[in-house]
Amino acid sequence: MSSETPQLPLILDPATLSRHLEDPHLLIIDVPLKADSYPAGHVPGAIFLDSRRLLAGSGEVPNDVPTEAALSTLFSELGLTPETHVVAYDDEGGGWAGRLLWTLELIGHRRYSYLNGGIHAWRADGYPLSTTPSTPTPSDYEAAYLNPALQIRREELIERLDDPQLAIWDARSAEEYRGTKGDNRKLGHIPGAVNFDWLDVMDKHNDLRLRDYAELITELEARGLTPDKEIVTHCQSHHRSGLTWLAAKALGYDNVRAYPGSWKEWGNRDDTPVEK
Questions:
Q1: Number of C-beta neighbours around residue 140 at 10 A
Q2: What is the end-to-end Cα distance of the chain in Å, rounded?
Q3: How far is Cα 96 from Cα 87, in angstroms, rounded to an integer?
Q4: 48-89 pLDDT, tens per residue?
Q5: How far is Cα 209 from Cα 10, in angstroms, rounded to an integer?
Q6: pLDDT at 114 > cutoff 60
Q7: Residues with a known catalytic role
Q8: Residues 152-207 pLDDT 10s
Q9: 89, 91, 92, 111: which is closest to 100 by C-alpha?
Q10: pLDDT confidence bin for 3, thresholds 50/70/90
Q11: For helices 213-222 and 240-250, what crossing angle results, to 10°?
């Protein structure tokens, strides 16, 4: 067993993770959509994380990023240290896991991986499940927004809507994008944004793993989401766009940011332009 932090890829397959389960530097975090997913069976050693801890939880934009103090508390409880390599997964194809990894990148913690396909892929590949909760060893982690450019705020987005170097990836459903569905004061989409549903990023026939990279790149580029541009992705609450941020990163897009306010903020204000 190595005493050094493992060098694991961003997108991790179940077979590789299975060989590293005993690694002392590994912190496996299960951040499921359904609360009963974790007790029903999780990756051995994985710690449960309530996805609500990744959101501010209150204020005008409850889905915004938590305070640095709240993130310090959270990651200390989870036992994060600068040497820790985090492996995140969920039960829904990568939305909440992506939001967690985006949050780690925001605070400058770059040792992380996504278990491709999450618990569905792990189970389908025949790896063991545990129903015993794992308790983390607390640490004293001080979180700060060391990488603030990873998020774009509403004010900057409004200013840059005509910037040809900026491309907006709306990860919501086509109905939300077109403004025929939604529970916001205003329905539709950010002017110039292009729609590529987060569900189309995952392979429903392959246990919710990411789809073939070449196919994804072809479909994104056809929509003007090209690697030479600054990509901003969002959904309703930056949950579904947790996956689209992660997928773009996996596909080699160097400059991909997220708008944590998402449509929850944009669609409920008077000063934000909307297209249908």
A1: 9
A2: 56
A3: 12
A4: 999 999 999 999 999 999 999 999 999 999 999 999 999 999
A5: 13
A6: yes
A7: 235
A8: 999 999 999 999 999 999 999 999 999 999 999 999 999 999 999 999 999 999 99
A9: 89
A10: low
A11: 110
Paired tokens of 157 = 């987005």
The one-letter amino acid code at 226 reads: T
**Which pTM was predicted?**
0.97
Please say whether the beta carbons of 212 and 247 come within 8 A.
no
Residue type present at position 233: T
> In whole angstroms, how far apart are CA 17 and each of 1, 29, 196, 259?
14, 13, 30, 30
Reduced 3-state DSSP string for the chain: CCCCCCCCCCEECHHHHHCCCCCCCEEEEECCCCCCHHHHCECCCCEECCHHHHCCCCCCCCCCCCCHHHHHHHHHHHCCCCCCEEEEECCCCCHHHHHHHHHHHHCCCCCEEEECCHHHHHHHCCCCCECCCCCCCCCCCCCCCCCHHHECCHHHHHHCCCCCCEEEEECCCHHHHHCCCCCCCCCCECCCCEECCHHHCEECCCCCEECCHHHHHHHHHHCCCCCCCEEEEECCCCCHHHHHHHHHHHCCCCCEEECCCHHHHHCCCCCCCCEC
Q: Is the pLDDT of residue 2 over 90?
A: no
* pLDDT > 70 in the chain, percent: 99
